[in-house]
Each structure stands twice: as C-alpha cells, then as structure tokens.
Amino acid sequence: MIMNKHYKIFFALSIILIISFTMKVRQETISEDDIKRLSIQYKAKSLADLLMSFRKVYQDIFIHEHIKLDKSTIDFLPVKTTNKIAELFSSNNIYTKFSTLSDRPRNSINMANKRQLKTIETFNQNKKLEYLFEEIDGTYYYSQPLYISNLCLKCHGEKENAPTIIKDNYNKAYNYKLGDLRGIIDIELKQTEISEILTHKSEQRIIFVSFYIFFLIGILYLYTRYIIKLDEEKDEKHEKETLDILLHSLPMAVQGYNKNREVIYWNKTSEKIYGYKFEDIQNHKLEDLIIPDFMKDDVIKAIDDWYINDIHIPARELPLIKKDGSTIFVYSSHTMVTEKSGEKIMFCMDIDLTGQKESQKKDSILSEQSKMVAMGEMIGNIAHQWRQPLSVISTASTGMKIQKEFGALSDEQFDKNCELINDNAQYLSRTIDDFKNFIKGDRTKKPFVLEDNINSFLNLVNASVKNHNIEMVIDIQKDIELTGYENELTQCLINIFNNAKDALKEKNNQDNMLIFISTYTENNNVIIQIKDNAGGIPDNVLPKIFEPYFTTKHKSQGTGLGLHMTYNLIVDGMGGTVEANNVNYNYKNNDYSGAEFTIILSIS
Q1: Could you give the CA distance from residue 546 to residue 142 in angstroms, rounded to a whole number?
Q2: In what helix (H) or strand (E) does residue 516 lie, and over which residues does it extend?
Q3: Residue 437 is inside which H or E element, if any?
Q4: Distance from CA of residue 234 to its chain's centroid?
C-alpha cells in the first residue's frame, strides 16, 4: 500500500522533532568538551538525514504519483529542491549552511571548492567511509557522500536513455554507473552557535522541550488525519459528480443496481423511455419495474450469478415494460463497477429500438450493438482513467495549501501548480469530449486529420491499455487529412483494438503484450495497419472473421458483431477495404507472430 503523502510529511517532521529532542538529552549527560564536538556532529548528521528525507519524498512522489518529467515539473528534481531548501535555510541561519556539491555539476551553484574537492577525492578512495568531520579555524565541516542509485541512472546514465527534458537542458554529468560517487552533502557550522546552545541547558529545559515536542507531534498527527479525511471526501465527491454529469449526458438509458437488484441510479434518458422518475423508484427492485413476468426468474438468476459467481450477462436485444404497461424493445449492455468501499454496482445501458425503419433496422442495431460492447468496457474503466489526473490536482492544491500555511508558497510555485491543475482539468475535459463524440453517432462526411482521430481513439482506450498492461507502439505519419466519417473510423479502430486485446488476454502472457498502430500514404490512399503479438488467427477461422455473429469467444464475452460492423463501415460506408492476415516480425531483437488488420481509404 502506498503511504499517503501527508503521512510522509508527518513522519519526516516527527523524526526531526525526536532527533532534536534526543540531541538535547544527550548534551546533558556528557562533558562540555564532548558536547561541543558531538552536538555539532549530531546536528550536522540530522540536517544531512533531513535533507536526504526531503530528496526521497520528492523522488517517491515522482514515482508513486506517476508525475511526468517535463518543463512544469523539472524544478521538483531532487537537486533543484535541495538547492532551494539550502537557500531558504541558509538565509535564516547565519551560523549554519549546507549544500549539495559535485566535481561534475550540471549547475554552477553546485560546483565544489578546493576543500570540498579534496573531500570528494577521499570518499572516492574509501567507499566504506560514511562521513567526514573536521574543524578548520573554529568552523566545523561535516560531509556525507551521495552515491548513484538505480533511480539516479535515469538522468545520469547514458545520455541517450535520459528523459528528453534532461537531454535538452543539460550536456554533462552523464555516463555514471551504479555505485559511483555523484557528489556530497556539505554542512558548515560555526562555534558561536554551539556556545549559545550550551548556555540554555538545564533539567527544566529538557523536561519542557520533551513535553513540547510530543505535544507538537500529537497536534501534527491530528491535523494530518483531518487533512487526509478532507482530501478523501473531496476526491470521492468530485469523482461521483463528474461521473453523474457524464452519465446524464448520454443519449441512452443508464441504470445502476446493487446486489439486491434495487435501483440506486437512473439517468434522464431512463426517465424518458421508461416513464419512471428516479425519486419515485429509488430502492425499488428491477424486476418490479421494467421486467416482463416471463423474464423475471431468469433475470434474477442472471444477476445473482454475476454478483456471486462472476458470470457476465451478455449484451442482447430485450423486450421491457414501460410505466404505462406498453412494451419497449431495447438493446441492453451491462457492466460491473466496484466502488472504493468494495461494493459492486451493476450498470445497464439500454438503447431504444422503437420506431426504427425496417429497411435500416438491421444495420442500425448491429452498429449500436458493436458500439455498446466497446462502451460497456469504457464506462467500466473511466473511473480508473481519471484517478491519476484527479490525484495530481489534489496533490497540487493540497501542496499549495500546506506551503501557504508555512509561508513557503512563492508566486512562481503558485503559477506552476495552477498550470498543472489546469492541464489536468483540460485532460479530463478532453476525455469527456472524446467519449461524447464517440457515442453521439454523428454520421457527417467532413474533412478531418487522421492523427487527431487516432489520438482521440487512444484516449478512449487508454484505461483498457493500462488495466491490461498492453504496450502500444505508435508510428503515425503527420498531416494526413481525410474526408469521411470520423466517428465511424473511431468505432472501427476500437473494434479491432478490442479484438487484439482479447486475443492477447487468451494468450495469457501478461509481461509482453504488444499492439502496433502505423499509418502512411501510398498512391493517393491512406493505409492504417494494426497488429498484435497474440500468435495470429487460426487458418480455418481467418476467412470467417468478418461474418456477422461469428465469434470464437464464450457467449458471455463476445457477440461476433465488432469485426462485421468494421467491415461494413469501411467497405460500404467509406468505400475502402479492410483485410486481416497473419504476420511474422521482429521487434527489439525478438521474433513475434500475430494478426495484422490493414485498412485502406482514399484521401480524396
């Protein structure tokens, strides 16, 4: 379990307070000559440990919060934050200064002087040496080595492997190896401060300081718990409000039921097509509202099997009952969502089939069925897709609040955090727009940029990619513009992606799941190729994969409509071609085999 960032701060500050108290008690039990030396040594080591704690906290935040290293976050790198802490500390303490230094710094402020270079050479010659402590002309110097770790190698290993933002900003301090000395923490303390400390020692002072420190730890713990509770309540409320807005905007009926089949969610479209208001039927059972008598026993058994035995209810066309007693035909798809509390909620998504013209009914139903299969998974994953940006927003806003309380919030930091919050809010907004554009079924022939269309598709399946640990290898030619049905092309890409994803899951190789997407132009045509490494399609199956209702999956997992609709949309709707073949290829010195789908569309 990842420790909450507030607990990290609490434990760091508590350790600092306890170390400070221990140093005070120790000073009262040894001679004055030893106090003079040991007190400064302990203080220096405490400052060094504190500095390393802050470096580790910032490193852990980058790792556990999945913060991308770019222009907006580069100033949070350990060396930059260490320099800032040293600057702030030194400006408020005339007797003590500390800094991180190197013989190969990236920033001139971190260049070691002659004494410090000698210290670095000493550590290089004796790797077992934990620290150096010396007195020169009444001033004490404490030095502690900084060695290269696995995490450090990301920015200080081979230059070509470093993050782009690092390579663009720094031309030196590369080619380190694990365990190499990167630099030192150097602390300078003057004797004048020690004299001032010794004048305040007394037994009453020790008792008072110990009581005061533990009192502060208690207050700090209570405050930390309070902040964590507020953050959790705020995040949960925000997630629910965002999901509620999305579901109410859908042009389909969406209902949520608990394990007892009681209504806990009922969107506006459900009210419209079934005639019931949510406030009138909340906590009423599903079978007492819209299920015909002849279906009630089967529906109750199917829902119980899903909750108890994890047997998924397949999507299908159903005759349901409206409030006025009339029958309405819907195509119903289902997904199970697990909330943070562990409670499972079954969501039903129904498309009204009433009033469709017979000549258009078959294709329309098939198209919506195919889209519903994709949408069912996306709605189930949308909470996972938003957790990271919501966490970044929460971290940035809470961080500003804590910095403001301690008077450490600069205008520059405030602007950077606001920009970070805005970027992630815009990402959430784009996700809603992409999802709404996909489901609204806009069949308008218009010019569009292929790269934008594929980026929108990748955003829609992003949660599924992460949940199934799939590596996407993208090779997109820029500036390709088409005239056609953008939304239908997105649906085709999702259908092919889902087919590849399911094949990879059946292969059950969780550590090496690959999907490649490439585009290029040839003879006034656009070629889109999607391939996987799932081993390919059996030869006896390959000729049938575009036939309606043909599937090799269990009936609870596949409808056999996705690839059939892809074929219809590409060939009949867009005047293009789509074909599937088995291919063998090499990637990163490894040989793979899999299925490759090729879509060819005319640019004009």
Answers
A1: 73
A2: strand 513-522
A3: helix 411-439
A4: 18
CA distance 304 to 346: 11
Nearest to 562 by CA among 377, 408, 355: 377
Check whether domain 250-355 has CATH 3.30.450.20, yes or no: yes
- Residue-range domain boundaries for the chain: 31-201, 250-355, 442-602
Residue 168: φ, ψ to 5°: -70, -25
In CATH, what is the architecture of 31-201? 2-Layer Sandwich (3.30)
User: What φ, ψ does residue 258 adopt, rounded to 5°?
Assistant: -85, -175
Q: How far apart are CA 267 and CA 239, in angstroms?
A: 17
pLDDT interval class at 560 (50, 70, 90): low
Residues in the chain: 604
| CB burial readout 340-370, b (16+ within 10 A) else e | eeeeeebbbbbbbbeeeeeeeeeebbbbbbb
Q: Which helix H or strand E contains 220, and what residues bound it?
A: helix 203-249
Evaluate whether 31-201 and 250-355 have a shared fold. yes
Residues 6+ apart with CB under 8 A from 364: 356
Which range is least confidently modeled, 73-77, 374-378, 519-523, 546-550?
A: 374-378
Q: What angle do CA 261, 266, 271 make, to 5 degrees?
A: 125
Exposed/middle/buried for 90, CB within 10 Å: 0-12, 13-18, 19+? middle
Any bridge partners for residue 317, and if so which? 331
121-178 pLDDT, tens per residue? Answer: 999 999 888 888 888 887 888 888 988 888 788 888 888 888 888 888 888 888 889 9
**Alpha-carbon distances, residue 406 vs 113, 350, 401, 403 (angstroms):** 33, 53, 9, 5
Which of 61, 88, 2, 12 has its CA nearest to residue 398?
61
Residue-wise DSSP of 459-506: HHTHHHHHHTTEEEEEE--TT-EEEE-HHHHHHHHHHHHHHHHHHHHH
Which CATH architecture fits 442-602?
Answer: 2-Layer Sandwich (3.30)
Within 10 A of 511 (CB to CB), how many other CB atoms are there? 5
Q: What span, in angstroms and rounded, lies between the C-alpha atoms of 458 and 490?
A: 9
- The Cβ of residue 27 has, within 10 Å, a number of other Cβ atoms equal to 21
Per-residue pLDDT tens digits for 352-393: 887 553 444 555 555 555 555 555 555 555 555 565 567 657
Which of 210, 225, 221, 185 has the alpha carbon at shortest distance from 19? 210
Distances (CA, A) of 534 to 286, 506, 509: 40, 8, 9
Confidence of residue 599 (pLDDT cuts 50, 70, 90): very high
